Amino acid sequence: MRPILGGNVPPERVVGRDAFIKGLWQSLENQSAVLVSERRIGKTSVLRKMANEPRDGWYPVYMVIEGVRSPAEFISRIVDAVSPILSRRKRNLARLQRFFDEIGGQPVGTWNLPELKDGWKKLLVSTLEDVRDNFDERVVFLWDELPLMVSNIKDDHEAKVAMELLDCLRDQRVADDSGKLRMVFTGSIGLHLVISELLHKGYRNDPTNDMETFSLEGLAPEHAQELALQGMQALVDDGDIKLAAPAEALAKEIAEGTDGLPFYINYTVDRLTEIGEPVEVPHVAQAIDSLILDPEDKAHFDHYAERIEAYYLYDERSDDLALLILKILSHAGQPMAEGQIWDDAVAQIELTSEVLFQKTLNLLVKDHYLVRTVRGSARSYAFKYRIVQRWWLKNRG
Q1: What is the mean pLDDT of residues 198-219?
Q2: How many Cβ atoms sit within 10 Å of the Cβ of residue 375?
Q3: Nearest Cα to 236, choosing from 222, 224, 250?
Q4: Predicted confidence (pLDDT) per residue in 84-114, tens digit
Q5: Helix 303-311 × helix 191-199 angle, to 10°
Q6: Can you give the pTM of this predicted structure?
Q7: Is the dihedral angle over the CA atoms 330, 331, 334, 338 positive or is it negative?
Q8: CA distance 233 to 240
Q9: Where would you tag: which of 43, 60, 320, 329 has the fewest CB atoms within 10 A of its CB?
Q10: Taking a C-beta distance cutoff of 8 angstroms, is the pair 197, 154 a contact?
Q11: Which residue pairs from 352-361 have beta carbons closer than 8 angstroms and sit at least 24 positions apart in sequence?
């Protein structure tokens, strides 16, 4: 069970997510869901485990759709995913076939759907209704990187097309009285960031207000330590490391130093192979520092800054303000009062809008960079994860 560095985690290797997945399945009995967290927390691992270990009476369809750039391509991916299953069951997408007959009798066999400017909504509705009616089980679409797909469609077509796609999916969920069709949205950027861009282009709907939001956090301490122990034991068995301290003590240090984030646990365990001597407890901090200071950024910390530069576009100063707030807080050894953050910010940039300041703080909390503490009317903020704060301080502070 060597550490997995990037790539897909086999479902049998996913640690500590059973209770979370159980809760998600229970919620899907009544409504669709949005799965949120920052990148590298394990959202994809959760979806893949659900797809490989479905609850009785459910048929999960897992799809990675980050490269999709049009509604027609999205529909084509759905058809590609379900048609082999229906074919084995001697069923077919009859509504979809009738739609093709209506637009000229084009064959459906290759599923290379035309780039319809008008009519793709009818095509999507027909496809989803076909799926619902042709499966005996309840179908849940597990759509990984849906926010990126919506952003791609916004960029390549009119923003109106992205809005209409979100609305069409919502309409289908609301209209489905059978309870046989569910959707799970997730991705490495929050859907709320994409929707925020659409709001600035005239969008007025809330396309996920019928869905329950689930936030995926770091592993509980016992599960984080279990993952670290598994990785270290494999490296010991393979002769890659020797331990000079009890494995349990090392695992506890790794779990605490990585905030229980599986991605960084695996990378930290792997970095122990570079120590060059039997591993002691202080070597764990050394391994984490080597990740944080890695000039090649193999652990992809820089994504935390890049996503702000790419998606905090609600004001011409919003990305700079967000980055400055994080820089200020990276130096703080404890939660920092909102007023003090304001004072430090206005000392460094021209800032007169308290509304913009408050909106940026709220978004950084919603995006899991920060946590907010409220005592009476006083608000204070700190980084949610210490490992991210350490990276920010050493690389952006």
Answers
A1: 92
A2: 8
A3: 250
A4: 888 788 777 777 677 666 655 455 444 455 5
A5: 20
A6: 0.89
A7: negative
A8: 10
A9: 320
A10: yes
A11: 356/315, 356/317, 356/318, 356/321, 357/321, 359/314, 359/318, 360/312, 360/318, 360/321, 360/322, 360/325, 361/325
Q: What is the CATH number of domain 304-395?
A: 1.10.10.10
Q: Is 104 exposed, middle or buried (0-12, 13-18, 19+ CB in 10 A)?
A: exposed
Structure token digits, residue 325: 């707030």
* Calpha distance 130→253 (Å, rounded): 52
In sequence order, the 6+-apart residues with CB closer than 8 A to the CB of 116 are 71, 72, 103, 123
Burial 168-187 (b: 16+ CB within 10 A, else e): bbbebbeeeeeebbbbbbbb
107 neighbors 97 (Cβ within 8 angstroms): no
Q: Which residues have C-beta within 8 Å of that of residue 279, sequence separation ≥ 6?
A: 241, 242, 243, 244, 245, 250, 272
